[in-house]
Amino acid sequence: MVIDQTKITFQSDGSPYSSQFEDIYFDTNHGTSQSECVFINGNKIKTRLEKSTKKFVIAETGFGTGLNFLLTLATFDQLKQNENQQSLSPKTESTLHFISVEKYPLSKTQLTQSLKILPELEQYSQQLIAQYPENPEQDITLSFLNGSVTLQLIFNDATLGLAQLASDKNIRVSAIVDAWYLDGFSPAKNPEMWHTGLFQQITRLSKEQATLSTFTVSGKVKRQLISAGFRVEKRPTNGKKDEMLSAVFQQNPYSGKGYQQRPIIAKPQQVSIIGGGIASACAAYALTKAGVKVTVYCQDFSVAQGASSNNIAALYPLIHQQADDISLFYQQAFEQAVSYYKSISEQGFHFDHDWCGLLEISYKPALELRQQHIANSDVWPKNLIQSVDKATASELSGIALNHGGLFFPKAGWIAPAQLVKQIFKAAELTNRLRIETGCKINNVSQKADGKWLLHTDKNNYQANVLIYCGGAQGIPLNLIEQLPLTSVRGQVSNMVSNDKVAKLSTVICHKGYLTPANKGLHCIGATFQKHSFDIESKAEEDQFNLAMLDKCLPGLTQWQTTDIASSKARLRCMTPDHLPMVGAMPDIEAHKQQYPHLSKDKRWRYNEPAPVIENLYMLTGLGARGLCTAPLLADILTADICGTPYPLSNEQLFNLAPNRFVIRDIIRRKFD
Questions:
Q1: Could you tell me which residues belong to the region FAD-dependent cmnm(5)s(2)U34 oxidoreductase (predicted)?
Q2: Which residue, of 250, 279, 294, is where some domain finishes?
Q3: DSSP state, 37?
């Protein structure tokens, strides 16, 4: 342990300056704002403390003047005060444990003088100074706010100090930290701190989804964070240093589940996308906004001609009675999709839509039981889904209904073809998108350098990184055909409005669905025919749609076949577990060779990352809810390509990973 309390001077404004490292302790020109921006906001501390119901742990390298701790203490205290004022029965008492390691601690006199120039923190700094030792030597733990906040000060080298924390060899016990403040003088001025050992300790101590922020944007630090299991992004900040790094611990290299690890690639300058529907549009927009040039290859002579071409489509989540993996995914995807499409509209990109809500009608006893269960449960928030009786359902829909049901107030309908074209238009305005239409890719092949050739009847195109965003029509494409994707035909009938149904003001779902009118037409449907690639409309399927509607909701519309204005059949691309897939294309044979022991013990620990086919990604299998899931999936894909943090946890990501089916088949001994 090395302690030196002498190499500090005070500048004319009273701020501390390190003579040893020739650097300031904090940017006095901006008061506390830069530290607050980097560490409090960079780790979303306020939001996370609001939600925390137990001990929240923050670890810091470089205590310095205690500024970051005092800002955190003030944030915690203000949240508690607000909570007590707003509630007669506060939530479960949460606590904050702040660990800080400092090799060169200030004396009490130096600390006192340093904090004089921060009067806005005086009530908290006085509490710190009162407990702080005159000349720190021994590690200490201080208490604040009646014991709800503890400060553990370790006076040692950062790596050695962190090494003494939770030293149990079991990594699950060691994982104690929710957020990291990676502070301290810059790598150029303090290289002793920023070495591999420090990042190994950070890996060992981090909980899954732990966040980290730091002033430094050094390439070396970024690379070490990535190796340590963090997804990293650069963000702007204010003050003397105009950039920062923010990171999330999402790819633990020692998790024992290496097959859940997603490959790390250098962010490419250009990618190529196969597909012209909602998946391709959202992917193109997300990637172009991230600075990547995109070329889209669409087999039709215009985009949005496949499953995205229907006149009207409902936007709502798949919600079960219990909060299972599928429901939680669709809940998050739905919330993001609504926000995303509203943002597109607010930017001036017009498409027909109405956030009119959606009713799932309880037209049979089994659905009435489901409705009752959800009504009596607090699993789902009322602003997502709520139970309504017959009278309320009739009022919400604008027409008389014979049953109540479940109402999704944020849901609605969208004209998907218009939407897709507008999203592509938004992407084109970045000047990073080029769309090639009339390009049916017959097969793809990989060159020796890892790049791809896309073969058509007329031309061959080269791609550095290839992303398949096509739907069911592309299932026969080589490589893609290895995945367990199924084509399911669905025909939608467009019906002429009449006095009986013209006032319908919300989407209705039964065994099929019925939309409000758009330009005088309602949509009903849809049929469900597995393993079909036929997209010709059939009169018998229009009859099926009418019969289904009349069986579930008798006499509601009184439509006849003469009321059919048109119909359209398109293909849904389905997976066996009804979740889409997004990520790198797995090398299936290599999976079998690399993870054989999973067939004997599904908990067998493998740290080896999943073998993949280089530079090949996909976003597909969206089924009947592409509108709901495409924006979130596009963000996951962009994180894959650009190395930025994921919007989901590791387990949720693996539920969407293309290689999940290979791993499940190995566990189930389907390859024996």
A1: 274-672
A2: 250
A3: I
Q: Same structural domain for residues 65 and 148?
A: yes
What own/partner pairs with CB < 8 Å and gap ≥ 24 does 607-610 have?
607/253, 607/254, 607/255, 607/256, 607/258, 608/258, 609/253, 609/258, 609/259, 609/261, 609/263, 610/258, 610/259, 610/260, 610/261, 610/262, 610/263, 610/584, 610/586, 610/657, 610/659
* Amino acid 538: pLDDT: 96
On the question of pLDDT at 629 being above 50, the answer is: yes
Strand pairing report for 140-144 and 95-101: unpaired
CA–CA distance from 536 to each of 494, 539, 541, 543, 571 (Å)? 15, 10, 11, 15, 11
Residue 136 lies in a domain: yes
Each residue of 333-376: pLDDT tens digit? 999 999 999 999 999 999 999 999 999 999 999 999 999 999 99
- Provide the number of structural domains found in the chain: 2
CATH of the domain at 644: 3.50.50.60
Residue among 228, 232, 234, 233 nearest 205 (CA)? 228
Cis, bond preceding 639 (omega within 30 deg of 0): no
Query: Contact at 8 Å (CB) between 336 and 410?
Result: no
Strands of the sheet containing 313-315, edge to edge, are: 313-315, 412-414, 353-354
Classify residue 539: in a domain, yes or no.
no
Q: Within 10 Å of residue 332's Cβ, how many Cβ atoms?
A: 16
Residues 223 and 283 in one domain: no
3-state SS of 95-125 is: EEEEEEECCCCCCHHHHHHHHCCCHHHHHHH
**DSSP-assigned letters across all residues of 445-473:** EE-TTS-EEEE-SS-EEEESSEEE---GG
Give the pTM: 0.92
Q: Residue 401 carries which side chain, given as an amino acid letter?
A: L
Residue 476: both structure tokens together: 């026969």
* Residue 552 located in a structural domain: no
Query: Beta 313-315 vs 412-414: how paired, if at all?
Result: antiparallel
* pLDDT per position as a tens digit, 111-143: 998 898 888 999 999 999 999 999 998 999 999
Assess if residue 110 is contained within a domain. Answer: yes
Same domain, 115 and 175: yes
- pLDDT at residue 117 in the model: 86
Choose among 443, 461, 445: nearest CA to 296. 461
Phi, psi of 509, deg, nearest 5 = -115, 135
Same domain, 171 and 213: yes
For residue 513, the SS3 value is: strand
Domain co-membership, 582 together with 659:
yes
Range of the domain at 422: 270-306+418-485+577-668
pLDDT at 599: 94
Phi, psi of 257 (to 5 degrees): -125, 60
Q: How far apart are CA 296 and CA 281, in angstroms?
A: 9
Residues in the chain: 672
N- to C-terminal Cα distance for the chain?
Answer: 56
Residues with Cβ within 8 Å of residue 246, at least 6 apart in sequence: 42, 43, 211, 212, 213, 232, 233, 234, 235, 645
**What pairs with residue 144 in β-bridges?**
149
pLDDT in tens, 69-94: 999 999 999 999 988 777 655 555 78
User: Is residue 230 domain-shared with residue 290, that is, in the same domain?
Assistant: no
Q: Are 102 and 64 in contact (CB under 8 A)?
A: yes
226 and 296 share a domain? no
